[in-house]
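By way of example, we now present a protein record of this kind:
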Amino acid sequence: MTIGKIHSFESMGLVDGPGIRSVVFMQGCSLRCAYCHNPDTWSFQGGTEITPEELVKKISRFKPYFKKDGGVTFSGGDPLMQPEFLIETLKLCKEAGIHTTIDTAGYGTGKYDKILKYTDLVLLDIKHINDEGYKKLVCQGKKGFDEFLEAVQKSNTKIWIRHVVVPGITDSEEHIKKLAEIIKSIKNVEKIELLPYHTMGVQKYNKMGIEYKLSHLKCMDKEEVNKLEKILNNELRYFELALS
């Protein structure tokens, strides 16, 4: 019997994919993002054990609210770190007619082809634009992300791209233009979100006795993010014109 570990369950989320969605926060992550607001999902030892059948039964209770656009989103932690459980659960969701999304940074333990076979949408978090930036920000190189992205491209799965704008780290015009270059190389991108850095998770670090490495930073100004969005859109617009 396949057993998974989940951290928590949100019955009707509105920001993790299209429509109204149940959000499953899975336990365990191999990254240590400097701004992560869920450090309590890092450990592979915590969480609540559950079978795919039990979880899909729980998700199905909210199916009437999903209507045309909604469904379930598997977040974390990182859902890719529990591949067998994720595959079984995704498969059961598809059999139940539920739209499936995975919210991931692209770091897992493989079996991506099987996972993506039952995935309708990937919310793909691009942490940085190069290997050095990845190592400084999430404590791992960019290779894991690149390997997962390659699998997503082969599967032709639809993608929403997310990128956190951190003051002094990922907020320069040059950085955003390089991000645009990366996005230009990715197919099936339906949406791009620049997310302003915030400090909502700091209290968790204090409670858990973990050092918060970005304690010297203030929240990212939303007006500045709007300016960067315009720069990004301009770069991508020129790219689209070149293709037409």
In short: The CA atoms of residues 34 and 137 lie 6 Å apart. Residues 222-243 form the longest helix (22 residues).
